[in-house]
Amino acid sequence: MHLVLLFSEIYTIAEMLESKVMEYISTKQTFTFESFEKSNIFAFEWYDVKVGHPKPHKVLIYMDEKNLFVFCESKDCFKNISTFLPKGFSNEKALYMFFVNLFQDDINHLENFETKITDIEDSAIANSKQDSLNKIISYRKKLLSLKRYYEQLDIILDNVCTNDNQILTPDGERYMGIISRRVHRYLNYVLNLRDYVTQMREAYQAQIDIEQNQIMRVFTVIAAIFLPLTLIVGWYGMNFQNMPEVTWRYGYLYVITLSLLVCLGLFVYFKKKKWF
User: Fold this and answer.
1) What span, in angstroms and rounded, lies between the C-alpha atoms of 131 and 274?
2) Which of 87, 120, 151, 197 has minimal CB crowding within 10 Å?
3) In this structure, which topology does domain 219-272 adopt according to CATH?
């Protein structure tokens, strides 16, 4: 029997479940995977990757030799999950088809996500605007959610493929092996994208540092040009009686000319050195 139910309806099929399973579920401490003598039970947080900001929904799957039950946390989750579980197949094939339908559009979504990351890379480096940084942070958060999602499924499917209680037939092990390898590829894809986003953020930060260094260089050049003028003002501001330039008729013009020449000389020097 194949059924998709809400968690609140789990007691309606209690007589079909192994007694230890009901005791285990009643504690509400469902871990990623648990193997019993005649059944397996595994739970995961399902993310609809097609949604821009997916909200996780808890899904619990019970499987024995005769039955396959999928329990959903919410009605929205139940509505979507119900379309994933086919009818008219064996438990193993139904579980295989369930995961196939669950991951149906994942690879397309990941490829489109990679395209978005690639598109923003050039604009982030060229413009260095705050919105680019916000997008990079948003991408990192989403990739972290996807990483957790595929990691938990990778662990579950590894345990299912181990088949310690011999519930799966050789065909069932082959089906689960196919799904396990697919999830592992998706996980590696997400990890590569996360590394890509991390490198992009570092490149973006490097661009900001370069711009800040250029600004500081301009301020440094301005300070270097006016520093000799400060020395000239301080020198001739001492007002000693025997300073010839103080009583000289062209002293004021001399100081102005000297200041301009100093500024012009430093400007030409810095320009040749390509400091600005």
Assistant:
1) 32
2) 87
3) Methane Monooxygenase Hydroxylase; Chain G, domain 1 (1.20.58)
Q: Which two tokens stand for residue 105?
A: 């559009």
- Chain centroid to CA 206: 19
Q: What is the pLDDT of residues 146-186, one digit of tens each?
A: 898 899 899 888 888 888 888 888 888 898 899 999 999 99
Residues of the chain with CATH 1.20.58.340: 219-272
Where residue 44 falls (left for φ over 0; alpha for ψ -120 to 50; beta otherwise) is beta
Q: What is the token pair recorded at 263?
A: 């500024």
| Residue 37: count of CB within 10 angstroms of its CB | 9
Q: pLDDT at position 185, please?
A: 93
Give the highest mean pLDDT range of 95-99, 140-144, 212-216: 95-99
